[in-house]
Write a structure and sequence with these properties.
The protein has helices at about 5-10, 15-30, 35-45, 50-60, 65-80, 85-110, 120-135, 135-145, 180-295. It is mostly helical. Residues about 160-175 have low confidence and may be disordered.
């Protein structure tokens, strides 16, 4: 039975330009084995972008480093929940340093694998790693090196609701200076732009997923049609074989009929000759009997 997870692990380890051909080969193999459901699941696997591939490559190349990044994300989420301001500052600084270093390493690994990566793609890898820090589900998929697409961007860890712990004192809001208010407005504009970008990315992802589903359905319909054609071709082959056997039998019977006609003609000639001989013999007998009768009367 085809192991779809193993196939996915193999495909997402390939360079993007190798992905489609390898995926289609696995789809064909699954269909040949009669495993249509697995073939459909493999056909639905999406080709990763260069940044997603580089991020997967990073996770695959150093499992310990990937685990440390996941631990850092867990510590950041915990610090946010417990309102540990000092821990947040230290971990946030560590986050920026680690992500920058890892994205640079991903670019180097890609180059070693024969795939050039631009600075823009390196920044995309950084964004993927930031999302991995904040999203445990995305983190698990990334750690296995099988990200299919960049997860939706997360702005910091604001989506996590902080909880109170005994002895913890919530920070009190401070009066905002003009410069602070200006910075907050700028941050709000950036957050708004990021949110719009996230919404647009989700929309395009949904459209891409619908297109992939439509493609999978079309491929299933095509496979069904091909199976129907295969059945008809088999019937045609059987009929042609029967026709060939019938033609051979007809030729054999034709030869037999011709031989029978020849024997019939020969037998007819022999019968005709026999009848003529019989009539001659009869006439001779009658002539003999007539001569004998006249001799007795004398």
């Amino acid at each position: 039975m085809v192991d779809v997870d193993a196939v996915a692990a193999e495909l997402y380890g390939l360079r993007p330009e190798e992905f489609t051909a390898a995926r289609d080969a696995h789809v064909a193999e699954a269909r040949t084995a009669g495993e249509r459901a697995e073939a459909k699941r493999i056909a639905a696997l999406r080709k990763p972008t260069l940044a997603v591939w580089a991020a997967n490559l990073l996770a695959r190349s150093d499992a310990d480093q990937a685990r440390r990044l996941l631990e850092l994300g867990q510590e950041l989420r915990e610090a946010h929940r417990t309102l540990a301001g000092e821990d947040l500052r230290k971990l946030s600084h560590q986050q920026h340093v680690v992500i920058a270093a890892m994205a640079h390493e991903a670019r180097r690994l890609a180059g070693d694998a024969g795939q050039a990566v631009s600075e823009a793609v390196q920044r995309e890898v950084e964004q993927i790693l930031r999302t991995v820090l904040a999203d445990p589900d995305a983190a698990e998929t990334w750690a296995r090196g099988v990200l299919a697409k960049a997860p939706p961007q997360v702005v910091g860890f604001d989506e996590l609701a902080p909880v109170r712990v005994p002895g913890a004192v919530a920070p009190q809001p401070q009066p905002s200076s003009p410069g602070r208010r200006k910075a907050e407005k700028a941050d709000a504009r950036v957050a708004e732009a990021q949110e719009r970008a996230r919404v647009e990315a989700e929309r395009t992802d949904r459209e891409a997923e619908r297109a992939e589903e439509a493609l999978a359905r079309a491929e299933a319909d095509r496979e069904q049609a091909r199976a129907g054609l295969g059945g008809l071709d088999e019937q045609i082959a059987n009929l042609q074989e029967q026709l060939e056997r019938a033609q051979q039998e007809r030729d054999r019977l034709g030869d037999a009929a011709e031989a029978a006609d020849h024997r019939h003609q020969q037998a007819a000639q022999e019968a005709k000759a026999a009848r003529a001989a019989a009539r001659k013999a009869q006439r001779a007998l009658e002539a003999h009997e007539g001569t004998t009768s006249r001799a007795r009367r004398r």
